[in-house]
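Progress report, Aim 2. The chain analyzed during this reporting quarter is listed below.
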Amino acid sequence: MSWVLAQAPDTLPDDNTGYVAAAYLAFFALVLAYFVIMAVKLQRLERELVELNALADRQIAERT
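Predicted structure tokens for the chain:
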């Protein structure tokens, strides 16, 4: 069995490691961009929610 493992070729050639690393970096960059976009949208949504709450409080105060 050890003779078979010793004779087995490498599963990935050494010249493709750069492409694999580039693919992982590109994927990481896309995930990071997605999280940044979602964080910006969440901040804007929170600001709008604060404004709507303030508007609702003013309208309630005017009615009483």
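The two ends are 87 Å apart (CA to CA). The mean pLDDT is 87. These observations will guide the mutagenesis work planned for the next reporting period.
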